[in-house]
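Reopening this ticket.

The earlier resolution said the output was attached, but the attachment link was broken on my side. Pasting everything inline this time so it's all in one place.
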Amino acid sequence: MAEGVASSLCEAQLADEGSSAAAGSGTVFTGGGEAERRCCCHCSCSGGVPRKEGNTFPNELVVKVRVSDSPERHFVLVDLPTSDLSWLRLVAASCAALGIPVKMVKEVLKLPNTLLVRDKDVKRLLDYQELELILHNA
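Inline output:
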């Protein structure tokens, strides 16, 4: 099913509580005793993009980024707007946060072993996933 169709179905299910699709959805109880209503089992209605708990801003994706083979092994958090998720936007925001030129980035690796090469790959990312920027040898 196409991404746009999936998000439309989720929003439609929430909007129409009397429909048979919404009747199949349930209420999920979180640890704090609060109830969270979900329209389907595969998302928490954040535009059809599943999000990991912890990010309180539904319109942004938060990823952890560091430079590969650097003595600094700590990650930096990078916020990306979900309205414009692209590979180039990811690289530009990551480079700005790490203080390196965009031209030095050769590849983006999602740890432990997946190269991100297309905009579609970036749109699949979940909050707080760990990424490494692989740089050209200077």
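Reporter confirms the inline version is readable. The beta strands are 27-29, 35-37, 60-67, 76-81, 105-110, 114-116, 130-135. The CA atoms of residues 1 and 106 lie 32 Å apart.
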